[in-house]
Design brief:
Length: about 190
């Protein structure tokens, strides 16, 4: 491969990194880099792209007889792209985990708010909501049992079994609430007669 082809390939690698990173130029990359690759750590994506383009510019200025320097800058450029790509991947997977935790917290608070609203309903309406919840839980158990049946690894089967166990516990609480509310309504009906 001649120098022109190699430069074209390296430019494509940089362009690919830039286009497929799903990150803004002003977004900070929270990573510590080797000083031989980047002059600073914990800088923005744009800062690192500029340094990569600077390495490419130096590479383009070299003459054909400067093979050792040419090889050095080629390796540096490939390493810069690789470590930056890896840092972006780590950063995005970390933010995905944080987003999942936030989402779970929001779902929990929504569920708690819904439960509070249901508990403020008159007894008959509340009983209807409890039966809707029971039907939903029964459906969820069936879906989870299908997933358990389709699971291929032991780990997947354990996860599915745990989900079924948790849903069945919720179903038991729902049945207890229904029974208690039906007893209360029967008692009130007896008083009214």
């Amino acid at each position: 491969m001649n120098n022109t082809d190699l430069l074209l390939l390296l430019e494509q690698k940089i362009q690919y990194l830039y286009n497929h990173s799903n990150i803004h130029k002003d977004q900070q990359i929270k990573a510590k880099f080797d000083r031989t690759l980047f002059s600073e750590s914990f800088e923005t994506f744009g800062f690192y792209i500029n340094e990569i383009e600077e390495t490419l510019s130096r590479l383009k200025l070299l003459k054909n007889d400067e093979k050792e320097q040419y090889q050095f800058y080629c390796q540096k450029l490939v390493s810069q792209c690789s470590v930056l790509n890896e840092a972006i991947y780590r950063s995005s997977s970390s933010s995905n985990k944080k987003q999942q935790v936030r989402s779970r917290k929001m779902n929990t608070s929504k569920r708690e708010k819904l439960i509070k609203e249901i508990n403020q309903l008159p007894p008959r309406e509340r009983l209807e909501k409890y039966y809707e919840a029971l039907n939903s839980l029964n459906q969820k158990i069936v879906e989870e049992e299908i997933m358990l049946y389709q699971a291929s690894t032991l780990e997947e089967k354990q996860i599915c079994s745990e989900k079924i166990k948790i849903t069945q516990q919720r179903k038991c609480k729902c049945l207890e609430a229904i029974e208690l509310l039906e007893e209360y309504l029967a008692f009130r009906k007896g008083l009214d007669e």
